[in-house]
Design a protein that fits this description.
Oligomer: single chain
Strand content: under 5%
Helix content: over 70%
Structural class: mainly alpha
Number of domains: 1
């Protein structure tokens, strides 16, 4: 297999058919993992905050302190069952929001992934002088198998969640007994699962397979061409990691105005630093998302071409089953 030809043609395809950049951005919606972060604060004993200087005895002016006490008194007078109802409402809202976010990300991610795969296949078969593929061309072609890919990804998310719950305690025990080294076993497993999902998705889109047939086909292509697949995985994996780091570097600039302002003036001009950081984020974050989408389109395009080369002429051929009548006609001919 000519790796150079695949990598070069993948770039030519996404450069000529720039609509694949948009599909790459959408594909990133389904690939992005969820995460949460939080921060805590501690009490201060000898550190005097800037707003403490407004009063010689407390944090606030007397009038402000009285208003704050009134607010605290109002909340403490609310019955316990009301707080319980508010808590349940908040929890249910968070769960619903998480479900809606998951479904929306899968819808957009599936559209992007199937669009890049189908668009790459269409471009690979097209003549060099043909005009660039349009969004409507790709969208029309992915309709027959869009929901198959969506259900595949949804099923994997649900299965992964259930499996994570079942293996949570064994994983903790493994990590404790091996000082965390046992967790390294999950890295190649995760890579292989990701690779199998990619090939299964490509099989569903390129060969119009059903979900389970697509998984079986993806497994077949990987296992029978393991050397080529692993080498391409290393090339794309290392390259994608390096480029992802480079693309994400501008994000470091975003908090710089805020940090400089805090260290230089304390909290006196906090709003100014916050505004500059916010303006930088408005420019840099969309740029990072866009470049990340282009990179993802290139990687998906490369994997699609790899799959097509492995299953094309001289590669792994599809298994064809003949019935008795077809067998007789073939012998007669």
């Amino acid at each position: 297999m000519d790796f150079g030809e695949i990598l070069l043609k993948a770039w030519k395809i996404i450069w000529k058919h720039k609509i694949l950049w948009l599909f790459g951005v959408l594909a990133g919606c389904g690939a992005a993992g969820g995460g949460s972060g939080g921060g805590g604060g501690g009490g201060t004993s000898s550190i005097q905050l800037p707003f403490q200087q407004m009063s010689g005895e407390g944090l606030f002016e007397p009038s402000t302190q009285r208003a704050l006490n009134d607010v605290i008194g109002f909340f403490t007078s609310i019955p316990g069952w009301v707080w319980l109802l508010i808590g349940i409402t908040v929890v249910v809202s968070i769960i619903l929001f998480s479900i809606i976010s998951l479904v929306l990300s899968l819808l957009l991610g599936t559209l992007g992934t199937t669009g890049v795969i189908k668009g790459t296949g269409m471009a690979d078969e097209a003549d060099l002088d043909e005009k660039p593929i349009s969004f409507s061309d790709i969208f029309r072609e992915i309709k027959p198998f869009y929901w198959k890919v969506f259900l595949l990804n949804l099923g994997l998310r649900i299965a992964g969640f259930i499996l994570g719950l079942l293996l949570f305690i064994p994983i903790i025990i493994l990590a404790a007994c091996t000082c965390g080294l046992g967790m390294l076993l999950f890295i190649p497993i995760g890579w292989f699962i990701d690779l199998l999902v990619n090939f299964s998705t490509i099989a569903i889109v390129q060969e119009e397979k059903d979900i389970f047939d697509g998984i079986s086909r993806g497994w077949q292509v990987i296992t029978k061409n393991l050397g080529n697949v692993l080498l391409m995985f290393l090339i794309l994996g290392v390259g994608q990691f390096i480029l992802t780091v480079i693309i994400g570097l501008p994000l470091i600039i975003v908090p710089v105005p805020l940090l400089v302002n805090l260290f230089a003036t304390g909290f006196e001009s906090f709003a100014i630093g916050l505004i500059f950081s916010f303006l930088l984020a408005l420019v840099i974050v969309p740029l990072v998302v866009f470049l990340g989408g282009v990179l993802r389109a290139y990687v998906l395009s490369s994997w699609t071409l790899t799959y097509r080369r492995l299953t094309g002429e001289g590669g792994l051929q599809p298994t064809v089953l003949f019935n008795e009548e077809d067998e007789e006609e073939r012998d007669a001919s």
